[in-house]
Design goal:
The chain is of the alpha/beta class and 215 residues long. Helices cover 30% and strands 22% of the residues.
Length: 215
């Protein structure tokens, strides 16, 4: 099933398509959806079968953690064992937006979503991404809709051609802006480390939380 949704610039979201996508996620199926930069693959991050499908479909290396997208800040922080003060400052400055914050994870999350410093999550600025996570009731996977090692995909037609045969629902919103992927920042104790500088620059992060917090 595929459908065009108005998301980034419009206040209108086709909730019938979101409902179909949520039903697919609850059945451990995969969904392609738009973010503020590229298309992603959504799955239930608590479903081993769905996570295995992502790794198999993308040819993704085992042990490489899958980041998540939450519908709002509350849902994002619910993944954390503790919320570092820097996380609150970063969220206030950059969410919704392309900043993935890695925080100490609460118990019970699937190992495929965990890295050495915890779980990575962001609140997307794309309405459809947020509506999908909110409708599902908890964060969704944010793996890029491409084959592992290949360039991320901004055109839904290309995503459909590359991955569509194994995707239950495709939520389209035209050709996305592309550009740099989300910036990834790890938090621990009182410090931070920028793992990947992307759409949000290191200079912008320093301006928001200060240079002295870096570790």
């Amino acid at each position: 099933m595929s459908g065009r949704l108005n998301g980034a610039a419009s206040t209108v979201v086709d909730h019938s398509m979101i409902d179909a996508a949520v039903a697919a996620l609850r059945a451990s199926e995969l969904v392609i959806y738009p973010t503020e930069t590229f298309y992603g693959i959504a799955a239930d991050p608590q479903s081993p079968a769905a996570l295995e499908r992502i790794f198999a479909l993308k040819g993704r290396q085992a042990g490489k953690p899958i980041a998540l997208i939450a519908g709002d800040t509350f849902a994002a922080f619910a993944l954390a064992r503790e919320i570092p003060p820097l996380a609150q400052r970063l969220a206030a400055a950059f969410w919704p937006g392309p900043l993935t914050i890695v925080m100490p994870a609460r118990p019970g999350l699937h190992q495929a979503t965990l890295g050495p410093c915890g779980v990575g999550v962001r609140v997307s600025s794309h309405r459809i991404a947020r509506a999908l996570a909110s409708g599902f009731g908890r964060p969704i996977t944010a793996s890029s809709a491409n084959l592992s090692g290949q360039a991320p995909i901004a055109d839904p037609a290309i995503a459909r051609a590359v991955l569509g045969v194994d995707i239950k629902v495709i939520l389209e919103d035209g050709i996305l802006s592309g550009g740099a992927p989300s910036t990834v920042i790890e938090l621990a104790d009182r410090g931070y480390r920028i793992v990947r500088e992307g759409a949000i620059s290191a200079a912008a992060i320093v301006a928001a939380i200060g240079r002295d917090a870096a570790r």
